[in-house]
């Protein structure tokens, strides 16, 4: 279904780009639903094409609606030619060239459909030179003419210099111009285009007139046979209007030749599961061609392979993709080699400069040595002249001068030896410089590793610092809580002390009231004694209880002394807990 959707999108794309969708999108959608046998959804259509920011010219666009409400519902039970003709009708008038062509509008339509089949799967649609060559070869072979490879190579070179390929309308202009069909009449070109159209689009593998033996009357009737990848249809004539039947092909079918009999020649048999068909070709060549074509179709059905032209198209695409990938890989390798070459050139240039510097130093040293040697020679000549002048006076010193001369020669030899050692030192210095460069590169690598480790240690240190800061924050929070608790404790202690003072004052007041109560009780007792001497003339109102009463800050207590002791114990316990 994915391949079918891609084929449909190519034709729809032409109609889509040719219409003003703000006004004609509904018409295109209705036509697509009709030819593709998709149920109409008027509500979704009106919702998508409403006049606001969500309409067909909004960010949603027309393609989301097309995919969701039309293409996803396509089942394949539609007429492909009718579908392509509808899309062709919508876009041909706007795009077809106005200049006269050597092909009819019907042939132009067929070329347009073939273009959609052979074009690349990217938009805007184009057909690459390789597919143009394949199509022109097929048309030329169908016309029975010879292929002009050199002519196409010149055209291909001119095309590649300007763009990647041709659009559908440029391909129609190319074929309609007759550039590659010179000497052929319009009818021959039209028949060739129809033949290629039948093969590539209608999947017609072979067609032609043959005789077929009837199943009931056993008579022989001429029929127009059309072989497709999974069926052989036969008609009354080649106009395909009156269809008489189909031969369904599958992997279980087979075809075999039959000997001539009953006055019929070039016989062959097609065996299917439910029926057997006897057919007579016009000659042995046609018989062999039909047998081979039908057997090839059955073999493809058994293997589950697509038709030969579709498989060939896929292989050509895969080959182009492979060549493109190889070309990109080659360009990448060339860039890498170029970069490596530039680096080598820089290294060689640096080595050359080092050699030139070393040669300059060696030349300078050689110059100094020659200058020293000349100076020594001049001094030696001067000494010889002086010896000649004073030889007569210094005969007695000849031996001594000879010894000095020997020492002097020894010094010269030592100087030469020093010069050799200096040369060796220069060589050693060159080697040391090379070793130093190696060590420097090693040190640079070690420095990079050290930098990476340092960055990692700094990261760890930063994490540790963050952890310490978090710990310090928690510690500070605990310290704040402890200070708050100490302050609350101090306030509670102060309140406790205040309560203690109040309790002491209450006890003092209680003692005073107790004393007063005792005094009052004594007074009352004396009064009772006095009254007792009288014989009940007067009866005093006695207090309810002789127990001593407790007095608080608010008056007489409502509790006993035992309850007071319990309260004192409770206060002392709370005080001990708070301390």
Automatic annotation (TrEMBL):
PROSITE patterns: PH_DOMAIN. Signal peptide: none annotated. Keywords: Cell membrane, Cell projection, Coiled coil, Cytoplasm, DNA-binding, Membrane, Nucleus, Phosphoprotein. GO terms for cellular component: cytoplasm; lamellipodium; nucleus; plasma membrane. One of its GO terms (molecular function) is DNA binding. It comes from Oxyruncus cristatus (sharpbill). Residues 203-299 form the PH domain. CDD domains: PH_SWAP-70. Gene3D superfamilies: Pleckstrin-homology domain (PH domain)/Phosphotyrosine-binding domain (PTB). It is found in: Cell membrane; Cell projection, Lamellipodium; Cytoplasm; Nucleus. It comes from the Eukaryota. Residues 309-530 form a coiled coil. The SWAP complex consists of NPM1, NCL, PARP1 and SWAP70. This is Switch-associated protein 70. Phosphatidylinositol 3,4,5-trisphosphate-dependent guanine nucleotide exchange factor (GEF) which, independently of RAS, transduces signals from tyrosine kinase receptors to RAC. It also mediates signaling of membrane ruffling. Regulates the actin cytoskeleton as an effector or adapter protein in response to agonist stimulated phosphatidylinositol (3,4)-bisphosphate production and cell protrusion.
């Amino acid at each position: 279904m994915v391949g079918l959707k891609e084929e449909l999108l190519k034709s729809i794309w032409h109609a889509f780009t040719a219409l003003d969708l703000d006004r004609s999108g509904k018409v295109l959608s209705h036509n697509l639903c009709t030819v593709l046998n998709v149920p109409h959804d008027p509500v979704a259509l009106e919702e998508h094409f409403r006049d606001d920011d969500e309409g067909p010219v909004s960010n949603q666009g027309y393609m989301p609606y097309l995919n969701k409400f039309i293409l996803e519902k396509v089942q394949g039970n539609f007429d492909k030619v009718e579908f392509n003709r509808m899309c062709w009708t919508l876009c041909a008038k706007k795009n077809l060239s106005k200049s006269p062509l050597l092909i009819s509008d019907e042939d132009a339509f067929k070329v347009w459909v073939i273009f959609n089949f052979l074009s690349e799967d990217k938009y805007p649609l184009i057909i690459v030179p390789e597919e143009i060559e394949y199509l022109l070869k097929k048309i030329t072979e169908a016309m029975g003419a010879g292929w002009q490879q050199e002519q196409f190579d010149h055209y291909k070179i001119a095309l590649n210099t300007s763009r990647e390929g041709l659009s559908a309308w440029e391909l129609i202009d190319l074929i309609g111009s007759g550039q590659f069909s010179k000497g052929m009449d319009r009818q021959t070109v039209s028949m060739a285009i129809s033949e290629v159209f039948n093969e590539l689009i209608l999947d017609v593998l072979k067609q032609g007139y043959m005789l077929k033996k009837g199943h009931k009357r056993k008579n022989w009737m001429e029929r127009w046979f059309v072989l497709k990848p999974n069926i052989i249809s036969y008609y009354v004539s080649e106009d395909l209007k009156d269809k008489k039947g189909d031969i369904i092909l599958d992997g279980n079918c087979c075809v075999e030749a039959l000997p001539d009999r009953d006055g019929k020649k070039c016989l062959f048999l097609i065996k299917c599961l439910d029926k057997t068909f006897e057919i007579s070709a016009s000659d042995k060549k046609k018989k062999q061609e039909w047998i081979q074509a039908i057997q090839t179709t059955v073999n493809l059905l058994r293997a589950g392979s697509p038709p030969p032209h579709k498989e060939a198209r896929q292989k050509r695409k895969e080959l182009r993709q492979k060549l493109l990938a190889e070309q990109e890989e080659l360009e990448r390798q060339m860039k890498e080699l170029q970069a490596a070459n530039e680096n080598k050139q820089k290294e060689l240039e640096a080595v050359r400069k080092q050699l030139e510097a070393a040669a300059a130093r060696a030349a300078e040293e050689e110059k100094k040595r020659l200058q020293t040697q000349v100076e020594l020679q001049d001094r030696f000549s001067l000494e010889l002249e002086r010896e000649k002048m004073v030889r007569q006076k210094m005969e007695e010193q000849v031996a001594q001068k000879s010894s000095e001369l020997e020492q002097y020669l020894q010094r010269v030899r030592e100087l030469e030896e020093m010069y050799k050692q200096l040369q060796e030192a220069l060589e050693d210095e060159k080697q040391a410089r090379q070793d130093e460069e190696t060590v420097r590169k090693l040190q640079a690598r070690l420095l990079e590793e050290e930098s990476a480790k340092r960055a990692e240690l700094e990261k760890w240190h930063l994490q540790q610092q963050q952890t310490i800061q978090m710990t310090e924050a928690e510690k500070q929070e605990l310290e704040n809580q402890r200070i708050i608790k100490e302050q609350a404790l101090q306030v509670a202690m102060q309140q406790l002390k205040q309560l203690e003072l109040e309790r002491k004052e209450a006890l003092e007041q209680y003692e005073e009231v107790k004393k007063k109560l005792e005094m009052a009780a004594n007074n009352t007792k004396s009064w009772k004694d006095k009254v007792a001497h009288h014989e009940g003339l007067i009866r005093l109102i006695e207090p309810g209880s002789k127990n001593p009463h407790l007095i608080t800050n608010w008056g007489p207590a409502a509790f006993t002394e035992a309850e007071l002791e319990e309260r004192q114990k409770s206060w002392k316990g709370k005080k001990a807990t708070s301390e």
